Amino acid sequence: MADLNLRPKFHITGDEGWINDPNGLIKFGGKYHVFYQSYPADTNWGPIIWGHSISDDLTHWEYLPHALYPDRKYDRDGCFSGSAIEFNGKLYLMYTGYSINGGGSNVRQVQCLAESSDGVSFKKLGVVISADDLPDGYSKADFRDPKVWRENGKFYALMAARVKHGRGRLLLYSSDDLLSWKFEFDVFGKDCDGIMLECPDYNPELGLLIYSEQFAPVEGSKHLNIHTTRFVVGKLDLEKKCFIQTGDSDICDYGFDFYAPQTFSGENIAIGWMDMWDRSHPSSQFGFSGMLTVPRRLSVKNGRMVQSPIVATGPAVEKSVKTNLVDKIKTGVISLRATELSALTLKMRCGGGYYTSLKLDGDEWIFDRSASGTEIRGHEKDLDSVHGLRRMPFIHKPTTELTVVFDKYSVEIFEDGRALTATIYPPDDADGLEFEVKADKCIYSRSEV
Ligand code: FRU
Question: Is the per-residue pLDDT at 101 higher than 90?
Answer without folding.
Answer: no
